[in-house]
Amino acid sequence: MTGAPGAGELSFKRTRNVKEQAIGAFLFLCAAVSTLVTVGIVAVLFTETVGFFRRVSPVEFFTETEWTPLFQNPRFGVLPLLSGSFLVAAGAAFVAIPLGLLSAIFLSEYSGPRLRGVLKPLLEILAGIPTVVYGYFALTFITPLLRTVFPETDVFNAASAALVVGIMIVPTVSSLSDDALRAVPKALRQGAYGLGATKFEVSTRVVVPAALSGILASFILGISRAIGETMAVTIAAGNMPNLTLNALESIQTMTAYIVQASLGDTPHGSIGYQTLFAVGMTLFVITLGMNILSQWVMARFREEYE
Amino acid sequence: MNGEPSPLSGASSGHGRRRRVAGTVFAIACAAATMVGVVALVVLLADVLIDGLPRLDAAFLTNFASRFPERAGVKAALAGSIWILVLTALFAFPVSVAAAIYLEEYAPQNRWTRLIQLNIANLAGVPSIVYGMLGLAVFVRALAFDRSIIAGALTLSLLILPVIIIASQEAVRAVPDSLRQAAYGLGATRWQVVSSQVLPMAMPGILTGTILALSRAVGETAPLIMVGAVGFIAFTPTGLGDPFTVLPLQIYNWISRPQAEFQEIAAAGILVLLTLLLAMNAGAILLRNRYQRDR
Q1: Which of A40, A239, B108, B133 has the fewest CB atoms found within 10 Å of its own CB?
Q2: Record: contact B248-A137, CB cut-off 8 A
Q3: Chain A contact for B67 (CB, 8 A cutoff)
């Protein structure tokens, strides 16, 4: 490499730089697409919801206890849909949180690498099964089972949807909790064993509290997924908005309403079309809030070891 | 230190029996909890197999949907699903990998980059039906693609974009820095480093993540319902602007019918869908092994 670059080398460098910058700009644009998506979602939901609230008062939306937007005398109270989503999510959490956490403890504290290698993929498969399949399972297997135990159960009921959604989110809770548990350094466990603790005590009194931030975050994320779940609840829980805490009844969740309304006749600009987005906005805000909450929990309660 | 035994020292004495029993009970509970998941999977698959296998024959694969259960088939739905799969892969893969490369190799470590990362993480958690609404408003209405297969593919691409980006970022991050430094040391530009060193090494992870994301897209129903895929299509798509249906939607349509035969037809449809997903995931594993061997 001698002396100053000649004219040929300079122009080679210039084209090389231009090409590099062009590539960098293109890559940046691709990353920016993700921002555009968020902007798009917020803009779309916001504008249609504002249009909706011009025709229906927000007070009625949030306090009225009946949801009959497509009837002659429409009522626009979102509470029945909220209670439906809540009922299913609570039931799902009731199933998934204990099962997920205990499985995670089993996977990380009790099982060896070979057993882990078999069990973890099996749980991943559970997560990969499409939701319509879970809906089918709920309708054709779980509901008849429930009806033999509780004969007063409706054909479409919240309980069987909650059970199935719970099974669906067990891998989420289990996998994230397992990651959190495995991140706890071995030294903490060894210290506890050195003091004479049993495996049970080490797991429950040392490791789980240390991994608490990740475990709690996994619970919140699981519940958020349960709220956003669509097809399994549409198939199994029914399409009757119903403000109730009785899980054996037919209900309608926010997501099921959106599906039902989309399948029906909702011309652009009609009130039916706008209810889609108003309910969608509610759903979006709730799940976004929960996702942000889980990130905050992870950051706030995280224990640093080094 | 005499007299009072410390709380943890009693395992071999009288206190210990209760602790040991508690320990055994807990271990059994954990194992049982894990087995519940496995058992649920087995029961679900068995249920679908028992209901659907009798209905699964060559006619089922080549017939279109019909009002009569004996004549119903998945031809249109299967074709639609494959079209959607290919189109979604075509749109989502380049953009996501490019975004991941930008975030890992090109982006400065400042507030804006962190914001983009946070945004992508949040997008990954948005329910799929919200993407359906975005697709309805933007692709179907605003861009006037109407209820077409391209609107469906674009909507699903947006849905799996964050998933592929996150997986690709992890794959790129796993590439050892020494390779990059060595290439820079030889005078390579940033893009040369990425294209010749980083991408090839990260490709198995990227491909695996992409195929997993595509598996999710193939199983999605709600966003496509919103974008206008319908349940009664009697032809296979021939162009980007055609109406279409997909396997999960056809299955949902059949489940919603009151006649018991349609439930069995739905189960057969589920078997076709699960086979498609199995093939995709097996392909992912094969691809990853092949890439790793060629090194």
Answers
A1: B108
A2: no
A3: no
ipTM: 0.89
Q: What band does B287 get if pLDDT is binned at 50, 70 and 90?
A: confident
- DSSP per residue, chain B: --SSPPTTGGGGSHHHHHHHHHHHHHHHHHHHHHHHHHHHHHHHHHHHHHHHGGG-SHHHHHPPP-SSGGG---HHHHHHHHHHHHHHHHHHHHHHHHHHHIIIII--SSHHHHHHHHHHHHHHTS-HHHHHHHHIIIIIIIT---S-HHHHHHHHHHHHHHHHHHHHHHHHHTS-HHHHHHHHHTT--HHHHIIIIIHHHHHHHHHHHHHHHHHHHHT--HHHHHHT--S---S---STTS----HHHHHHHHHTSSSHHHHHHHHHHHHHHHHHHHHHHHHHHHHHHHHHH--
- What is the mean predicted confidence (pLDDT) over B98-109? 92
For residue A67, pLDDT over 70 is answered with yes
Q: Is the pLDDT of residue A88 over 60?
A: yes
pLDDT score of B3 more than 50: no
Whether A31 sits inside 8 A of B107 (CB atoms) is yes
Residue of chain A whose Cα is closest to the Cα of B96: A30
